[in-house]
Specification:
about 0% strand; mainly alpha
């Protein structure tokens, strides 16, 4: 804090010895030491209180931000359901088509070849139309 060297302290000690005398000098030095100690402790207390207050403000701000984020996440999940829960109508159409094609019976072996050609053409037309 102050740039006081040994020479400056020696001069202060000599002046204090001359002014106060040898009887009162030890009590005065003790009193100065206690006063400086109290001042240092007071500054340390103020410093720790300020640091605690700054830390408490940061913690409050962080908790506030976390509450806001959790509220936003809850709103986002409430508004937009996940895509996996959405059912597609496309699968039902494919299933209907598959069922229709499976329900058509294949031509039997004991019929006429011309009949089987007609059935094949009819099935081909059905597949092209559907």
């Amino acid at each position: 804090m102050f740039d006081v060297g040994f020479f400056e302290l020696l001069i202060i000690g000599i002046i204090a010895l001359l002014v106060l005398g040898p009887e009162r000098l030890p009590g005065a030095v003790r009193m100065v030491g206690l006063t400086i100690g109290r001042i240092k402790r007071g500054f340390a207390d103020v410093k720790s209180q300020v640091e605690r207050e700054i830390g408490a403000d940061e913690i409050r701000q962080q908790l506030h931000n976390e509450r806001i984020m959790s509220n936003l996440e809850k709103q986002a999940t409430h508004i937009d359901p996940p895509a996996s829960n959405v059912k597609s109508g496309r699968n039902a159409t494919v299933t209907d088509t598959e069922q229709t094609t499976e329900s058509v019976e294949p031509p039997s072996q004991d019929t006429d070849p011309e009949d089987s050609d007609k059935r094949a053409a009819t099935q081909q037309n059905f597949r092209n139309d559907g």
